[in-house]
Automatic annotation (TrEMBL), chain A:
EC number: 7.-.-.-
Listed name of the protein: Ion-translocating oxidoreductase complex subunit C
GO cellular component: plasma membrane
Record lineage: Bacteria, Pseudomonadati, Pseudomonadota, Gammaproteobacteria, Chromatiales
Comp. bias intervals (Low complexity): 466-485
Originating species: Candidatus Thiodictyon syntrophicum
KW Thylakoid (keyword) present: no
Keyword Flavoprotein among record annotations: no
């Protein structure tokens, strides 16, 4: 089975050994869970419960609204203490609405949706309904509602489901552990997804620094001829959808298109496991595996944590911190979010909680660009970071746009490698934000313009019609024009 | 607990690379060739080297003070020392002290700081200084000596060397011509190339560096070793040196085949003058050369070709410095036309057509 080269990429220190041999352990139920209403990309969910109410495990407490959204469920039974604003696990440190749930320790399940008896032959819409109800979002970190991606097969002819088991972010081992400990559930979830997508083939790409996961998954896949497990080279950012598809198939996703447009839909392995649970047992997404790691953590491990659990509880479960960390990160060190504090809840997209010491972050003051070209050589998207940064520095956003700054993945490779420690990704994120705002303003302006013009046209037409009618009345009194009947042989539309 | 809560964006990890480390590695790679040549040309070379490097560091400090910037970390990044080091290597080994000092003014103040400091200059500062000195003070800049290793009989001692460097007088009997100079003079006097080359050390000695030439450029072998070290350390890639030396070699070989009495051969061309030093240490300067590999191949090709043209047809026997400066001026345009192909797009920037199976 041939693999294809991807451009650029880097080899950061992976440091997966800190947690990779730690089996997934369940977090003891914390005293309080704070379940955010907005844990996904898209519209926030709409609250269904009120303070004082008792909820059961798996009960929907907020409903998805709009085409891109996902519901939230109670991770355990207990009482709603309040609906309040809590610090979200986001760089801004801004507050977001959360349901505060005090567990009652009874673990009493709510009635769940009826699972499918045989999902592999079921009507795809039934699978999608269960996935939507279960509130599953992409668990690799992006948290895109999974059901939206399962619809892609309805509009396109798909050839394959690519399962992303690359886990290319340093430190993170949650996907590795899921594949090692539950390969049967991951592969079953993948087959269910492939069926829902109408894709005849499943290719599971796993970076070859995870031999145990490769072995477990290969063994489990042996029974299914349509499922292939393939090692991919350790090369960050192999976990980027487009790059993983390119490495596995040699196909390059055209700009402004989706991988689905070249026949492949990509889902994360943990998402597949969640889909297995949703479709086979009707279980919503109420917990996830989180890697807690970094040298500032006493005992790094992989924790099965209920959604809404305080990050402090996870850290405590790891024996606490060693000294004051230089950085707290949610997700991996390359693309993760800085955490404003430890007092934030776990959300569906929390793949990792990292407490990094100063030596690990290697932060230093930024110096001038020496044009070494490293960023150009390693950019997996073929961009020229140093030139884009030069434009952004002088606030020439159009210049940066022409060089393709909006196609930057923010993978962090250039910042990581820059000998001058220039925070290139930060420049690009700023530019992308500004360009998006500008574009939104422009579309809004154009829309207003079109509407105004249409309105004026309509008024003019009405006035003209009125005038014509008045004129006709004046000239041809009493003889209405004969209505012209279309002849049978005439096509309806010329 | 107080935790760093700055809202800068990812990544939160960094490679071990730093500007200082890069500069240090380049300097380390220059050490063998420098040490050998300082030994080969004796105390006057040692003094000139010290003056040049010291003056460049001092000029950098002065510029930072004048413009009200902090001395550190800029002075500590090693770039000024490296510029001084490279400049010293291209000076005649017994040149007077003021060439080093004036060279530092040209290199650091006019070649680098006036553009805004490290990374902002269009031209290689060491080459700016060398060419400025060469056209301003042609005599001092073309007074070559034969190798006079330290501690040999007949070699200037410490005090005599002080007089040479700081008194500005090279005693009679030491001077010699460089290989390129000899050929150029020979041609102007109606001699054929083979007649001139006959008077030179053999190729082996040329490669080892046992010949007249600039302070640090004569030992092609040790410079090659330093260059390979840089490639191994991934500070530079093979593109610029291979393209430059390859082009120079091929151009010279073609010329030699066409007219052996007029043009020296390829081996002679790459082993003489600053060809190796230029290929591995000067044309590879990050700041003034293109960033993409394709761009670097074009750049190296240009430097090689221009070097041969200048050496063969222009008034000066040596052409590396001029060739590098000329190509430096083309770097921005080369960069513009050699950007990588963007993911999902054609070279021209159009989105790719969706591929079916492949």
């Amino acid at each position: 089975m041939k693999l294809f080269a991807i451009r650029g990429g880097i080899h950061p220190e992976y440091r997966k050994e800190l947690a990779s041999d730690k089996a997934i352990t369940a977090l003891p139920m914390p005293q309080r869970l704070r379940i955010l209403l907005h844990q996904h990309i898209g519209a926030p969910a709409r609250l269904l419960v009120a303070a004082g109410e008792r909820v059961l495990k798996g009960q929907m407490i907020a409903q998805g609204q709009g085409p891109v959204s996902a519901p939230a469920h109670a991770p355990t039974s207990g009482y709603i203490e309040s609906v309040s604003e809590v610090t979200a696990p986001h760089a801004s440190g801004l507050a977001q609405t959360a349901v505060v749930l005090v567990p009652d320790g009874k673990e009493e399940w709510a009635p769940l949706p009826t699972p499918l008896a045989d999902p592999l032959t079921a009507e795809p819409q039934l699978i999608r309904d269960l996935v939507a109800q279960a509130g599953i979002v992409g668990m690799g970190g992006a948290a895109f509602p999974s059901v939206v991606k399962l619809h892609l097969g309805t509009q396109r002819k798909l050839e394959m489901l690519v399962l992303n088991g690359a886990e290319c972010e340093p430190y993170l081992t949650c996907d590795d552990r899921v594949m090692r400990e539950h390969p049967d559930e991951v592969i079953d979830g993948a087959r269910i997804m492939a069926h829902a997508l109408g894709a005849p083939l499943v290719i599971i790409g796993i970076e070859d620094n995870k031999p145990e996961a490769l072995e477990a998954m290969t063994r489990e896949a042996a029974a299914f001829p349509e499922v292939q497990v393939r090692p991919v080279p350790v090369q960050y950012p192999m976990g980027s959808e487009r790059h993983l598809v390119q490495a596995l198939t040699g196909r390059e996703t055209p700009a402004a298109k989706l991988t689905a447009d070249i026949g492949a839909v990509v889902h994360n392995v943990a998402t597949a496991q969640a889909i297995h649970h949703a479709v086979r047992f009707g279980r919503p997404l109420i917990e996830r595996v989180v890697t807690v790691s970094g040298r500032a953590v006493r005992e790094p491990r992989n924790i099965l944590a209920p959604i809404g659990a305080p990050v402090t509880a996870l850290i405590d479960f790891c024996g606490g911190l060693v000294g004051v960390p230089a950085r707290l990160v949610q997700g991996g060190p390359m693309m993760g979010q800085p955490l404003p504090s430890l007092d934030v809840p776990v959300i569906k997209g929390t793949s990792g909680i990292l407490a990094l010491n100063a030596e690990e972050t290697g932060e230093a003051e930024a110096g001038p660009c020496i044009r070494c070209g490293t960023c150009v050589a390693i950019c997996p998207c073929g961009l020229v970071p140093l030139e884009m940064a030069a434009f952004i520095r002088t606030d020439n956003l159009d210049g940066a746009n022409n060089l393709g700054v909006t196609e930057c993945l923010s993978c962090g490779s250039c910042s990581w490698a820059c000998p001058s420690h220039i925070p290139l990704v930060q420049y690009f994120n700023y530019a992308k934000g500004m360009l998006k705002t500008k574009e939104r303003d422009r579309t809004k302006h154009e829309r207003t313009k079109t509407l105004t013009e249409a309105h004026r046209d309509r008024l003019e037409r009405a006035a003209a019609a009125k005038a014509a009618a008045a004129a006709a009345k004046a000239t041809t009194k009493g003889t209405p024009p004969a209505a012209r009947q279309p002849r049978a042989e005439e096509p309806a539309e010329a | 607990m107080m935790i760093e809560t700055a809202t800068t964006s990812a990544p939160y990890t960094h490679s071990a690379a730093s500007v200082q480390k890069t500069m240090t590695t380049v300097i380390l790679a220059l050490v063998p060739a420098t040490a050998f040549n300082l030994y080969l040309f004796g105390w006057p070379a040692v003094f000139l080297f010290a003056v040049t490097v010291g003056a460049c560091a001092a000029m950098e400090g002065l510029a930072l003070l004048i413009s009200g910037r902090r001395l550190m970390p800029t002075l500590g990044d090693g770039s000024a020392v490296l510029t001084g080091w490279l400049l010293a290597m291209t000076l005649p080994p017994w040149a007077p002290w003021w060439t080093g000092l004036l060279g530092a003014v040209f290199a650091i103040l006019l070649g680098k700081q006036i553009f805004g400091g490290l990374g902002q200059n269009l031209f290689n500062p060491a080459m700016v200084a060398r060419v400025a000195l060469l056209v301003s003070f042609p005599v001092a800049m073309t007074s070559w000596v034969a190798p006079h290793p330290l501690f040999w009989t007949g070699t200037p001692g410490f005090l005599e060397a002080l007089a040479i460097t700081f008194g500005g007088q090279i005693p009679d009997g030491y001077s010699a011509a460089t290989a390129l100079g000899l050929v150029k003079t020979g041609l102007s006097m109606g001699q054929t190339v083979s007649q001139s080359v006959g008077q030179l050390p053999d190729l082996m000695d040329m490669g080892l560096g046992l010949r007249a030439g600039s302070l640090g450029e004569t030992s092609a072998l040790l410079i090659l070793a330093g260059g390979l070290f840089l490639i191994w350390k991934k500070v530079i890639t093979w593109h610029v040196p291979a393209a430059m030396l390859g082009t120079l070699f091929v151009a010279a070989t073609l010329g030699h085949l066409a007219n052996p009495e007029r043009f020296t051969d390829g081996t002679f061309q790459i082993l003489s003058g600053a060809a190796f030093l230029g290929a591995f240490f000067i044309a590879t300067d990050y700041v003034t050369s293109p960033v993409s590999k394709t761009g670097q191949l074009i750049f190296g090709f240009g430097v090689g070709l221009l070097t041969w043209i200048i050496r063969s047809f222009a008034g000066y026997p040596e052409g590396v410095a001029f060739a590098v400066l000329l190509m430096n001026s083309l770097t921005p345009i080369i960069d513009q036309y050699t950007r990588p192909r963007r993911f999902g797009r054609t070279r021209r920037g159009e989105p790719l057509a969706p591929q079916g199976d492949k």
